[in-house]
Every structure is written in C-alpha cells, then in structure tokens.
Write a structure and sequence with these properties.
The protein is mainly alpha-helical and 206 residues long. The chain has 10 helices and no strands. Bound molecules: zinc ion (ZN) (2 copies).
C-alpha cells in the first residue's frame, strides 16, 4: 500500500516537472511569429500573461484540455511502441494532461469544495504559489500541478541554469522579455480563434 502511494506521488512529481518544463519553454522561447506553434501555442501563452483571467473565462473543459490529452496519449503510445509503456508512465502522462486544468483552478476566485480542499492541503498547487509566477520577475514557479517541486527548483536556480546551458550549447538566448505580465493589458479582448485553448501549459502545458 505504501509502495503504491509512493509511486503515485513520484508520478505526480514527474508530471509536475513536465508541466513546468513545457511552461518554461513556452514562456522563455515561444514567440508568436514562429511557424505553426506561433499562433497555436505561443500567442495564447503570451495572452495569458497579459490577461491571466482569460483562462477562467474562455473555453470548455474539452477545448481547454484536448490538446494535452491527445499529446499525452500520443506520447504514451510512442512509449508503448519502444517498450516503456507501463502503469508509471501512464500515470505520469495522465496527471500531466490535467496540468492546464489545475492551472485554471488557480486563477479562479472560487472553486468547488473538493478542488478547494485539494488546493488548501497542497495536494495540487496552492493558489498563492501560482500567483508568484505572475509577479516580478515573471520567470519562476513554472510547475503547475503541485506545490512541492517549485520551491526546490527555485532554490537551486534550476531554470536560469537550464537557460545558461541552452545558450552555451545552442547560442539561443531567452526571449521572455516579450511576454512579461508587465505588458499593458489589451483594452479589447482578442478575437477568439479555434486555437484559443491550445493552452499555456500544453504538454505538447500557463
Ligand atoms: Zn508563464
Ligand atoms: Zn497562470
């Protein structure tokens, strides 16, 4: 029993890291003029940092999450093909596929009693922790599922070190100054596109 609970927790943390990694990539390197992903993933991500409450207003449960479900499903299928499909990889991808929904819960002023309980007990990310992501320096607390991984990653300066490693290996520098929340809010709401909910934390994951 304890082993099973331990496995679930480890899978949850692994999923949390996946959401953080995808979110970090989007915030740091994703620009709206990039081909294919520019309008599909980068632009909604940038918009979320200009207007964080858009995630609460827009979309349905399906439209907010279908990209994550299909991406995680495709990845699991790929893992099965190379012999890595098992209950642990399934659980990790299953949890990761709900990263954006948990992210949305953290922007809602009110949640149902069950979600509130999960947030207050820290079983999923606490609202006050995600709010740190939307405050200066706007480049921290990327993980969106739990409250446990972010403090550790911030303590070891993980994301800045990763950026330095990427720059060292590829010459690519962070572009995140283009999507800081400090950008002035748009006066009118962006016209909805079919990609509106190809979300900010799409694990294909803010
Ligand atoms: Zn972000
Ligand atoms: Zn957010």
């Amino acid at each position: 029993m304890l082993k099973a609970i331990g496995a679930i927790i480890v899978c949850l943390w692994a999923a949390d890291f996946i959401t953080g990694f995808i979110h970090w990539m989007e915030d740091t390197y994703c620009l709206e003029h990039l081909p294919v992903i520019g309008g599909f993933i980068c632009e909604p991500n940038i918009q979320h940092h200009i207007d964080p409450l858009d995630i609460v207003r827009d979309g349905t449960f399906f439209s907010r999450n279908y990209l994550q479900w299909t991406s995680c499903g495709a990845i699991f299928l790929g893992l099965c093909l190379v012999g890595w499909g098992n209950i642990y990889t399934f659980m990790t991808l299953f949890f990761a596929s709900f990263g954006n929904e948990v992210h949305r819960w953290n922007h809602m002023s009110r949640s149902g009693p069950f979600v509130s309980l999960l947030k207050e007990t820290g079983l999923i990310q606490m609202q006050r922790q995600h709010s740190l992501h939307h405050k200066p320096p706007y480049a921290q607390y990327y993980c969106a599922l739990t409250s446990q991984l972010n403090p550790v990653l911030e303590r070891v300066n993980f994301w800045r070190r990763l950026e330095s490693a990427v720059t060292f290996m590829t010459g690519i520098t962070p572009k995140r100054e283009n999507r800081r929340d400090a950008a002035p809010p748009k006066k009118t709401r962006r016209k909805k596109t079919q990609h509106d909910n190809a979300n900010r934390l799409a694990p294909a994951a803010s």
